[in-house]
Inverse folding.
């Protein structure tokens, strides 16, 4: 499984756009990139997943360059409730029995 | 709404006790996982299962065992609890077919071993 590297923490203010970048230099051909969000005392929850180029949903956008060695989670106009830990995972999502390895994540703190 | 339910939200046990953490999912998922989460260490995979009666070791299986007798239930067992097993335990499940393998987590079980 590809190892991922993310910043340990980031700070932002309400209304700003936040971009969190994840490095995954040894990503494999069949690997997908998935982001999760975790609030204190809760389990992580799925935010977005992509394979290449750009993916957008109602919560976030995911930008993946052509070489796929990194990806950027973009949160538009963050609010205080976006304060959480964000995890980037890379793995073969169609492989039965594939274990998914979480890193330490990025702690995002949003202030007013 | 799909759900992963962990039987106990908070547990307090004594050193040496046998501890069972139960997890049930109602989504007919093939894969189930147990993680533990500790401050500064993130989530670490203990065991996972991709089918009934099948299990695979994760990164930190020592001191733990698991049981999956039915597709919907995955149990984590601490044969003899120790203080260093005080942690938040998270269960997750996923469905692998033509769909992408997205994890759905339970709310967690916070275990304190005295």
């Amino acid at each position: 499984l590809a190892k991922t590297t993310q910043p340990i923490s980031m700070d932002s203010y309400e209304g700003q756009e936040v971009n969190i970048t994840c490095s995954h230099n040894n990503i494999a051909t069949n690997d997908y990139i998935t982001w999760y969000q975790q609030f204190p005392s809760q389990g992580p929850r799925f935010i977005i997943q992509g394979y290449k180029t750009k993916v957008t949903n109602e919560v976030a956008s995911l930008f993946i360059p052509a070489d796929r060695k990194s990806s950027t989670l973009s949160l538009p106009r963050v609010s205080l409730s976006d304060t959480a830990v964000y995890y980037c995972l890379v793995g073969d999502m169609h492989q039965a029995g594939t274990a998914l390895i979480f890193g330490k994540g990025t702690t995002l703190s949003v202030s007013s | 709404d799909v759900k992963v339910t962990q039987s106990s939200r908070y547990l307090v046990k004594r050193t040496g006790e046998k501890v069972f953490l139960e997890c049930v999912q109602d989504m007919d998922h093939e894969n189930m996982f147990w993680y533990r989460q500790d401050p500064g260490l993130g989530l670490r995979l203990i065991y996972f299962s991709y089918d009934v009666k099948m299990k695979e070791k994760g990164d930190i299986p020592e001191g733990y065992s698991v049981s999956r007798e039915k597709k919907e239930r995955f149990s984590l067992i601490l044969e003899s609890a120790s203080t260093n097993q005080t942690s938040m335990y998270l269960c997750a499940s996923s469905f692998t077919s033509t769909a992408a393998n997205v994890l759905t987590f339970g709310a967690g079980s916070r275990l304190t071993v005295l």
Remarks:
- Chain A touches chain B at residues 32, 34, 36, 41-46, 49, 87, 91, 93-105 (CB under 8 Å).
- The mean pLDDT of chain A is 89.
